[in-house]
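Fold these two proteins, one after the other.
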Amino acid sequence: MKKKVFAGVLTAAMMAGMMAPAAVSADEMTTLSLWIPTLATYTDDAVAKVEGKINEYMGDKYGIQVDLEYVEIGNFEQAVNLAMTTDEVDVTCYFTGEGQLSTYVNNGQLLDITDYFENASEELKNTFTDVEIAASSMNGRMYGLVRKYQYGGHAVVVMNKDIVEEMKIDAASITTMDQLEEVLYQVHEKYPDIYTMVPQSTSEMTWAWAQVCDRGIGLTNYAYADWGTTELKSLFESEGFAEFCSYTNKWYNDGLIMSDALSNTMEGSSMVTAGSAFCCFHNGDVEPLDKIYPNTVESGLFAPARAESTGIGNLQYGISANSAHPEEAFTLLGAMYTDPEFATLLAYGIEGEHYVINDKGRAEYPEGMTAENEPYGGFAATATYADFLILPVKETALYDDAKATVEEWDANVEVSPAFGFFYDTSELTDFVTAYSNLESKYKDALMTGSVALDDVLPQIKSELESIGFYDVLADTQAALDEYLAN
């Protein structure tokens, strides 16, 4: 992997607003490694150029340097999990959608930043709501800062625009699996040489989990519930999962879903854009997906905007417990949320080269540049950056004020009734690992439809029983019931 990030040094005096120390050379500055997952294409030359500009700015303002590491999102979790066992990474993105926060904390991989945060600037502290702080905390201690973004997302399908227009498909009217199924068969008959449906990312059929069920209850990797309920189940025994898999299994058997879905390494939206696939499931939010992914059209809503138990703060940035420079790393972490100039360089690249500000004060591609040929992909895909609310508004945005828009969105999102509940699994390390292995063994195969749930459910239940799943689930249910009662 090619590393490119930045490093940061900020003393307590600097944090308090005092003047920066005397200038030092780049060689004398602390260099920090920042890891970010990619949703678009970044060339080495473009990243190196942006990194150079970042280091000029960060060196002058904070006395730190940056080593920027971009990792393809499909490989990110495995790569960063390994990197955090060493001092290779200082500040990193991490996901919490399947209980990873508690796993990282229980494994001692994430630094407790509570004291740093309490002594931080009021600007940084006021950036986060109580809900957001709770989403990055365990047992009253903070371990990261959540991405400033809208909570949750609605479930949609992204379709190839050329095919939609050619076949006169009313995409916006498609809001159910039955309606989608009818269109899939029509497209498959007319275009048998392309994939009719592909996973959203690599072998993951969908990230819009709230369409399927509520997951990660109690910041665990094993407790699920059908949406809006608090009756805990295994993923495989939830009604929403069973219904979803019944459709995909039928579609897979009829050749509608790519036959090699389990070994897929591409983003579904990229294949839909290119015309090698007709559609994929997707999770939408305040930015229209057809503006992010060229040559695509969104369906209607399959599920409204929902935030599952781990959906608030499902992408966070924290400091590796093995970082040799925790104070400087917190400076870098804070700058990602409070320094618009740095955040814009990081996300959009260099003004005039990777983006421009037009006469309306909005950001857009330079003339002749698109998402397909722009070498620094952040502008096309800001979702993995820390705070898009402090970036210049894009020309394609349907709002003028990102902060006000997101706050309005958040106020209307359905939130899991189990949000805020934490179940301590620190004494269940072997169980958590065993369950993770079991779920990995079956989940993607079932969700892509390549295996029928009815065929393997008895075996899954037997394996769940053998690792003590139902006893742990009963204890978790009792703790959740007590939490809700109080």
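Now the second one:
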Amino acid sequence: MIHMTAKLSKNVRSNAITYGIVLVFYAVVQILLATGNLSSLMRGLLVPLCMYAILAVSLNLTVGILGELSLGHAGFMCVGAFASAFFSKYMAETGMPAGIRFVAAILIGALMAGIFGILIGIPVLRLKGDYLAIVTLAFGEIIKNVMNVLFIGKDSDGLHFSMNSAVDLHLKEGGTVIVNGPQGITGTPNQSTFTIGIILLLITLFIVLNLIQSRDGRAIMAIRDNRIAAESVGINITKYKLMAFSISAALAGVAGVLYAHNLSTLIAQPKNFGYNMSIMILVYVVLGGIGNIRGSMIAAVILTLLPELLRGLNDYRMLIYAIVLIVMMIVNWNPTCKAFREKYSFRNIKARMKTAKEVR
């Protein structure tokens, strides 16, 4: 009982530190904004910082906690982005208050991405390792390409769909094209703010951290550690894999909502919803530490800010960026560095001081 209480208090303290880091970062940024010490370039990065942090935390749930390699996270982000942008554009003329419409768009983006996570997860999670990575990568590319050939319009008769061109929608006079194929969705309300991004990041952390520390989370980690042993004690493998995968997908959809409502035009391009985006999110997870939620969030912020902070060193910034990646990888994964960090961590130093005091 005492052991469980100590472990619970340790988890609560760790969670409080994670939330505290986010709140301190928010307070510092607000002070910089109020004093005018933040450039327009950095102000434009505030919402993307929150978005990338949410993506890194949510992918770590699949890669670090579930132990499955997924390369389709950008696809779930794409689903959330387009579903929410479509809803916002469709409801723009209905008189629904902007705040309620945006909250509904967030819920719809998360719901649609979660549904796709379940639909993809049912067949895909039977695969393992490289096979799973390849299939999820294919899903992300399929979603992006479908968005580029999808045309949706509305008129007095309702919604019209086409996979050829906007002309084939045959809209009546006064009808509007909402999704215009490769031109995407234009005119989405610009409602994403840094404050909303921080709130969504805190909600994401709350969901993921509480899931990890719950009974379900322990079952998911048991599957990661030893699938056969977990199944032998009655853990439903399919259920818990789908749970982790769908929650991860839904949170990626939330990041997609932030992205869609931070732009005037939403287009499904390789640079924002393609393979490179999925790999970049995976880099955040690996460098921050697989299974380390706080680390992946911090890595996402640092690696998003770094290229912009080094923009003055235009000829060398990508070289410095690559060196930082290598150094972070060595520090996080080299056995000697890990042993050094563990030896000189605050917890171990405190324990040694307590032991020395007891001896005296």
